[in-house]
């Protein structure tokens, strides 16, 4: 049973723009699954559809075999989300917000207190624990969203650009914690534009191009994979593969005025 | 033998949300409306008019609490989505937010009524306070019911000081005016407190049996948050 399974999912915006076109995707359990694509490819729309925040035109979304529909909430007991825009009660302090989230996840108060203290320490927010979230930096807000997504020890963690704006030290700790969680059976579904990091961190990747999956494979197969549209070509890295798929006509281009022979 | 079963919301999400709403009280910038409203209310109170001297306090409290009735899901910009990413039992969430709004209404009328009553030409006596309590009980549940529908059909990302917010305040006051008609009728009858109390109980039952399930259905349909999203 896959952790996430999308079958023929299509999403059209009110403007008429088709963001996803018959998207099908299977995310095996216990993987760190990198979901890649250029800006506007449909990654965030996919994640919002999984979260129930975006209505689909057609298709089904299943989490651990159970089909979800907008408004469903029970399955959220075992899922944690970090969306591109942080979602919270921004007048609360980090500790208050995590305690609130713990209550919604029906954690025991003593267990919640212990986890909040551990998160404050782990995410280096002890000094900011009494400041309202609205006054904190983007990176700190991201950490708070991450804490809220992890506090109930979910089976599935869905992360949209979770490391954006977070310092290298905290990012390293977060990746380490997520890797440990995966060893315990958790599944991580993550998007990022930092391809080097994704290549090292993820066990599997999928590349979304123009609203549909262009490629899905284990990360270790990237250098061996054969793509029909690039016969005989081997790819040196995930970045190499990604650029070939996502934007083949634009590889190697440069900005003319930067290489002008007679700069002003 | 259990004769009466009170259908309290399941789990502890009701208390979690109610606690959060209470915590928000002292930090809600919308309460800064009091800086403007209190002097205005005092001015109205010293003006000769027929009716209770607590009317300005009730009006001011409604103006200050407008978002808690008409936009309860977005007391802060990402709040609705934050709740939708959690395993929220919507009926408990809406009930907690509604009852917190009710608590605020009574508290604010009390807090505003004391200074306004002090300056009023006819200081409010015990009778006026009892009448105010009965009046609030009769308008409360209709306001909560209509507010729930409005908040879920026309959610605003943010409530503050814009012209749109002013229009929403006007709408709430208009609704309160219409919801006052039963009180005006019932308070002229013999045993008025009894009739008003019975009407309030009927309103509470309607809120519990009709308004909360309807709000839950709307939220579960996903139409509310996708409407804000798009």
Describe this structure in words.
The complex is a heterodimer of chains A (264) and B (230). With 264 residues, chain A is of the alpha/beta class. Chain A has a single domain (4-251), classed as P-loop containing nucleotide triphosphate hydrolases (Rossmann fold). Chain A is 30% helix and 23% strand. Chain A has helices spanning 43-51, 94-104, 109-122, 138-150, 168-183, 195-201, 238-246, and strands at residues 4-12, 18-27, 32-36, 58-63, 66-68, 79-82, 156-160, 187-191, 204-209, 212-218. A 6-stranded mixed sheet of chain A has the order 6-7-8-3-9-10, with helices on both faces. In chain A, strands 2-1-4-5 form a 4-stranded antiparallel sheet, with helices on one face. In chain A, α5 (168-183) links the parallel β7 (156-160) and β8. In chain A, α2 packs across α3. Chain A is globular and about 60 Å long. The model of chain A has no long low-confidence stretch (mean pLDDT 87). Chain B has one domain. Chain B has helices at 13-25, 33-45, 55-70, 79-84, 90-119, 126-153, 163-179, 181-186, 192-220, 223-229. In chain B, α3 (55-70) packs across α7 (163-179). Chain B is globular. The model of chain B is unreliable at 1-6 (pLDDT under 50).
List keywords for this structure.
A: 264 residues; Rossmann fold; 7 helices; globular; B: 230 residues; 0% strand
Gist of the model:
The complex is a heterodimer of chains A (264) and B (230). Chain A has 264 residues and is an alpha/beta fold. Chain A has helices spanning 43-51, 94-104, 109-122, 138-150, 168-183, 195-201, 238-246, and strands at residues 4-12, 18-27, 32-36, 58-63, 66-68, 79-82, 156-160, 187-191, 204-209, 212-218.
The string of secondary-structure elements of chain A, in order, is EEEHEEEHHHEHEHEEH
Task: Specify the CATH architecture of chain A.
Answer: 3-Layer(aba) Sandwich
Overall geometry of chain A comes to globular
**Which stretches of chain B of 5+ consecutive residues score pLDDT under 50?**
1-6
Helix fraction of chain A, binned, reads: 25-40%
């Amino acid at each position: 049973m896959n952790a996430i399974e999308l079958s023929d999912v299509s999403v059209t915006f009110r403007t008429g723009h088709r963001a996803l076109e018959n998207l099908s995707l299977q995310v095996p359990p216990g993987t760190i699954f990198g979901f890649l694509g250029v800006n506007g490819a449909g990654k965030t729309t996919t994640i919002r559809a999984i979260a129930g925040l975006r209505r689909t035109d057609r298709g089904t979304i299943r989490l651990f075999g159970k089909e979800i529909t907008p408004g469903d909430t029970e399955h959220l007991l075992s899922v944690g989300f970090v969306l591109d825009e942080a979602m919270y009660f921004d007048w609360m302090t980090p500790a208050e917000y995590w305690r609130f989230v713990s209550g919604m996840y029906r954690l025991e108060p003593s267990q919640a207190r212990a986890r909040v203290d551990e998160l404050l320490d782990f995410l280096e927010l002890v000094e900011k624990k009494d400041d309202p979230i609205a006054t904190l930096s983007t990176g700190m807000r991201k950490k708070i969203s991450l804490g809220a997504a992890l506090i109930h020890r979910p089976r599935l963690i869905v992360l949209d650009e979770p490391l954006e704006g977070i310092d290298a030290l905290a990012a390293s700790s977060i990746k380490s914690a997520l890797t440990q969680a995966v060893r315990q059976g958790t599944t991580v579904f993550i998007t990022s534009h930092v391809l080097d990091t994704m290549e090292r961190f993820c066990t599997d990747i999928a590349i979304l191009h123009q609203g549909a999956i262009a490629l899905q494979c284990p990360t270790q197969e990237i250098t061996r994979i054969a793509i029909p549209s690039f016969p005989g070509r081997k790819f040196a890295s995930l970045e190499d593969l990604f650029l070939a798929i996502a934007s083949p006509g634009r590889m190697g281009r440069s900005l003319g005025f930067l290489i002008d022979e007679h700069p002003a | 033998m259990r004769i009466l079963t009170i259908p309290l919301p399941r789990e502890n999400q009701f208390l979690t949300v109610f606690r959060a709403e209470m915590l928000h009280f002292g930090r809600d910038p919308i309460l800064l409306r009091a800086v403007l409203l209190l002097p205005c209310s005092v001015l109205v109170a010293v003006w000769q008019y027929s009716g209770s001297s607590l009317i300005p306090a009730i009006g001011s409290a409604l103006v200050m609490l407008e978002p808690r009735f008409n936009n309860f899901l977005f007391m802060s910009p990402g709040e609705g989505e934050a709740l939708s990413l959690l395993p929220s039992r919507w009926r408990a969430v809406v009930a907690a937010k509604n009852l917190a709004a009710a608590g605020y209404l009574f508290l604010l009328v009390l807090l505003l009524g004391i200074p306004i009553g002090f300056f009023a030409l006819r200081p409010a006596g015990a009778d006026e306070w009892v009448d105010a309590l009965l009046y609030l009980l009769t308008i409360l549940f209709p306001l909560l019911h209509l507010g729930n529908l409005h908040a879920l059909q026309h959610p605003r990302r943010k409530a503050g000081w814009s012209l749109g917010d002013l229009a929403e305040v006007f709408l709430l006051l208009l609704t309160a005016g219409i919801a006052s008609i039963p009180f005006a009728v019932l308070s002229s009858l013999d045993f008025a407190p009894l009739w008003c109390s019975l009407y309030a109980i009927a309103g509470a039952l309607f809120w519990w049996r009709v308004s909360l399930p309807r709000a839950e259905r709307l939220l579960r349909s996903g139409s509310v948050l996708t409407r804000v999203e798009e």
